[in-house]
């Protein structure tokens, strides 16, 4: 019987040895969690904040991608690490996810599950605004909301703030693209109350207040004229107000509207740009380049899902 060949026995013995080593390392990794949790609260307790540190997570995944080789698709590695990082987040305090499903609740739900772990409590919110309001109540809740134009509810992003204890966009999902199982999924933002940190390759979301007649194209032209790479995403108007708020995505990391680099735009109450608020910043998507040799081996092994 081929099934009990010596070669198979040997390979399984090796797998047992490797599993033991992986398990020992996992237990060693988790020993660091209380030290990490302590360091995060050493400046005083901040009960509204969640232990999630998306910039650090992106750095970890980028570093692993840079050293990755062989036939295992990188999205499998990403999935294992996502599960581990979600568990580490839960070990540091309350952590749950409210999903605003837009027109495709199942797709956004799957995206949230993939990124925030199989055991993290999740609930479906009635709209993006409802999900963001839940985040604002604290208690370790984060929200997954459709990126653009896929939520029938009122604009949610005008409720984001610049302060460390206000909900902000900290991730754009999917973070790992290409071979990722979420390849065909829509994009979503993760909204949370947690520090805004640079990952080294980031995009920033700003809420830009202008007079009521300033078009999206003019806002982008103004930013580009001042040397920013900018894209306009959404526009919100207060009924009866002479002001509009534009949601604009910028290349690079900006921690606040007071960043001196915004000085060239001269934000002032009666100017074209009246105010700039940073309402989020997140790592640029990670693009694993599929290794051709790996793909060929996968095909040879009967992997017909690619
Ligand atoms: O580095 C941290 O701050 C951690 O909490 C550890 C860890 C991880 O498991 O690597 C977990 C959750 C954070 O979102 C980022 C990273």
From TrEMBL:
Enzyme class, spelled out: isomerase
Domain Chorismate mutase positions: 2-96
InterPro entries attached to this UniProt entry: Chorismate_II_sf, CM_dom_sf, CM_II_prokaryot, G/b/e-P-prot_chorismate_mutase
Protein name: chorismate mutase
Gene Ontology CC annotation, any one: cytoplasm
PROSITE patterns: CHORISMATE_MUT_2
Organism: Futiania mangrovi
GO biological process annotation, one example: chorismate metabolic process
Residue ranges the record marks as coiled coil: 1-28
Enzyme Commission code(s) on record: 5.4.99.5
Stored NCBIfam families: CM_P2
GO molecular function: chorismate mutase activity
Keyword terms of this UniProt record: Coiled coil, Isomerase
Domain of life: Bacteria
């Amino acid at each position: 019987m081929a099934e009990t060949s010596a070669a198979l026995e040997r390979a399984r013995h090796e797998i047992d040895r490797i599993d033991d080593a992986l398990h020992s390392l996992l237990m060693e990794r988790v020993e660091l969690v209380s030290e990490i949790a302590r360091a995060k609260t050493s400046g005083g307790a901040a009960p509204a904040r969640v232990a999630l540190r998306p910039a650090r997570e992106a750095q970890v995944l980028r570093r692993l991608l840079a050293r990755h080789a062989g036939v295992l698709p990188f999205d499998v590695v990403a999935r294992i690490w996502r599960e581990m990082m979600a568990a580490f987040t839960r070990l540091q305090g309350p952590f749950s996810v409210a999903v605003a499903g837009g027109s495709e609740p199942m797709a956004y739900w799957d995206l949230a599950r993939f990124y925030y772990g199989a055991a993290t409590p999740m609930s479906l919110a009635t709209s993006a605004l409802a999900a963001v309001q839940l985040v604002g109540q604290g208690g370790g809740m984060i929200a997954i909301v459709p990126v653009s134009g896929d939520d029938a509810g009122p604009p949610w992003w005008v409720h984001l703030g610049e302060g460390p204890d206000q909900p902000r966009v900290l991730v754009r999902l999917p973070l790992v693209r290409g071979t990722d199982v979420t390849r065909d999924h829509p994009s979503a933002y993760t909204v949370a109350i947690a520090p805004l940190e640079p990952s080294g390759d980031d995009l920033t979301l700003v809420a830009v207040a202008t007079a009521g007649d300033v078009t999206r194209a003019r806002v982008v032209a103004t930013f580009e004229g001042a040397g920013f790479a900018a894209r306009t995403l959404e526009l919100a108007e207060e009924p009866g107000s002479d002001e509009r708020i534009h949601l604009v995505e910028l290349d690079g990391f900006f921690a606040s509207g007071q960043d001196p680099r915004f000085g060239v735009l001269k934000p002032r109450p009666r100017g074209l740009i009246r105010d700039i608020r940073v309402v989020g910043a997140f790592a640029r998507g990670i693009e694993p380049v599929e290794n051709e040799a790996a793909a060929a081996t996968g095909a040879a092994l009967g992997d017909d899902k690619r």
